[in-house]
Specification:
By secondary structure, this protein is mostly helical. It is built from 21 helices and no strands. Helix 13 runs antiparallel to helix 14, helix 13 runs parallel beside helix 19 and helix 16 runs parallel beside helix 18.
């Protein structure tokens, strides 16, 4: 059947139940999965102590989940076409829920890692299928609002995850961060079974049959698995100073390049790389990748700065971020409405500009004297641009793409955002470590015996500690130690400023790219505007 016929057929089809009821159901499933990518972070020390593992070993609880999740994401469109989208979505929900129970019951770290791989595989299909279901369930003129609901889950869940995980672990047990998925998963599975249905074109695609691409799957699993592990462990193992990381870089590069070449010549590829010939799709995928970098970088930067340098508790740091989450909660539906009145590329351009200005503003506001109120305001400023990006970029990805590609679009777009989050987290940790070393080397030059300011500070502190009851020698040692601690804090603060500047430059580049996107009919969802 031709693409035009499929489009007409899809426009004529409408779900049996209220689209907003379906939207809430699938968004709940996506929220549960995204929440699980971050909720376990703060519980790692408790897991290590309970299961007799080291802290380094416990980080594989996160890595194992992310690896299997990343492998499933890009091929979720192919799996949905092979199995049927509703059946695939329910299977993912079932696997995710059952593996959550098994993770909570795990008697050892090795068993927990096995079930986390299974949980990541089940969760990998939930995000893209939820988005694809929304794209098919709503008419084009309402698609922006539907994606706004999905955007709330994708942006809010990582913000809530660490705070909720810390509260559950502290008050109950780390096992309950997995057990809470079980009732939600069961209820959602039953609701999906009752309310969600596949559109007609999916039934025809499934009936046509799809040949299993063993080589493509093998290249994808090896390439993405190696890439995810090296991003997660790179800074910890000193990047190219480690033979393990260097080997992973070679494996990832060879497998992913070979995958692209192989898939270009397949009639039924597991990843339709030919979609990247569309400038709009390629650009929106790149933007979603950069959005993942900026979103997760800022989610790491702010609480880490507040906790490590200002002494905030995890709950207080989470509270400082929560105001930004409230702003996004209010902003997303408004942006969804704006997509029906303004071209998506203009909203995207404004979002990148606002984000770039916010990151640059952060370089001026971040210091060791920042108050809690100023930190809350800074986080609000940082998230304003995010609301103008997630929904319009998602909308733009579908422009000019035929309906039978909706599953593939959703899978790749979500994969790009998830990989961006991994790159962003790795980028932040590396930049802060390296730039802190650089600034510390610069600042140490001023801590010399022949520097009168340094000597005056050291002598003043020594006198203060001597008056507190310490001996002259102890007071002197304590004074130099205090100055060095302050120097390290200043160096770290400057490293955070440098990192925010990098994010500002990246957002500014995306601002200019936004004007190259195709015009869309604001009331027509994925339809290209005719000049």
């Amino acid at each position: 059947m031709s693409s035009a016929a499929l489009t007409i057929d899809q426009d004529a089809w409408r779900p049996q139940y209220n689209p907003w009821l379906i939207a809430v159901v699938v968004a709940l499933a996506a929220f549960m999965e995204v929440l699980d990518t971050s909720i376990a972070n703060v519980a790692l020390p408790y897991m290590a102590g309970s299961l007799g593992a080291s802290n380094d070993q416990s980080t594989w609880v996160l890595t194992s989940y992310l690896v299997s999740n990343a492998i499933i994401l890009p091929i979720s469109g192919w799996l949905a076409g092979t199995l049927g989208r509703k059946r695939f979505f329910m299977a993912c929900l079932g696997i995710f829920t059952m593996s959550s129970l098994l993770c909570g019951l795990a008697p050892s770290l090795e068993v927990l890692l096995l079930f986390r791989v299974l949980q990541g595989a089940g969760g990998g299909g939930l995000q893209p299928m939820a988005q694809a279901i929304l794209a098919d369930t709503f008419p084009p003129q309402e698609r922006g609002l539907a994606f706004a609901l999905y955007g709330i889950t994708a942006v809010m869940a990582p913000t809530i995850g660490p705070t909720l995980g810390g509260w559950i672990t502290f008050n109950y047990s780390w096992r309950w961060i997995f057990f809470i998925n079980i009732p939600v998963g069961i209820v959602t599975w039953l609701l999906v079974r009752h309310f969600v249905e596949d559109p007609p074109y999916l039934s025809r695609l499934k009936a046509a049959g799809v040949k299993l691409d063993y080589i493509g799957i093998a290249l994808l699993a090896l390439g993405i698995g190696a890439l995810q592990v090296l991003l997660d462990k790179g800074q910890e193992d000193d990047w190219f100073g480690s033979h393990f990381i260097t080997t992973l870089v070679v494996v990832a590069a060879v497998c992913l390049i070979a995958l692209v070449i192989w898939e270009c010549f397949q009639k039924a590829p597991i990843i339709d790389v030919r979609m990247f010939k569309s400038f709009n799709f390629a650009s929106s995928s790149l933007m979603m990748f950069v959005l993942g970098i900026v979103l997760f970088s800022s989610l790491v930067l702010m609480p880490q700065f507040l906790q490590t340098l200002l002494g905030y508790t995890s709950q207080l740091a989470g509270l400082a971020l929560s105001a930004g989450g409230v702003v996004l909660l209010i902003e997303m539906p408004i942006i969804g409405q704006l997509t029906t009145k303004l071209q998506a590329r203009y909203l995207i351009a404004f979002g990148w500009l606002a984000l770039s200005i916010a990151m640059f503003y952060s370089t001026k506001r971040i210091d060791l004297q920042i108050s809690f109120q100023a930190a809350v305001l800074l986080r609000i400023v940082q998230v304003i641009g995010l609301g103008f990006l997630f929904v319009p970029i998602t909308l733009v990805a579908y422009i000019g793409i035929s309906p039978e590609k909706n599953n593939a679009v959703a899978g790749i777009v979500n994969f790009m955002r998830n990989m961006g989050s991994s790159v962003g987290t790795s980028l932040v940790t590396t930049l802060i470590a390296r730039r802190a070393q650089f600034h510390q080397g610069r600042l140490v030059q001023y801590a010399r015996p022949d520097n009168p300011n340094f000597q005056n500070s050291a002598n003043g502190l020594a006198q203060y500690f001597a008056h507190s009851g310490l001996s002259r020698h102890e007071a002197s040692v304590r004074a130099y130690a205090s100055i060095y601690e302050g120097l390290q804090a200043q160096a770290a603060s400057l490293a955070y400023i440098d990192t925010f500047m990098v994010l500002a430059v990246g957002a500014a580049i995306m601002f200019f790219l936004a004007f190259g996107l195709k015009k869309n009919d604001p009331g027509g969802g994925g339809r290209v505007a005719v000049d």
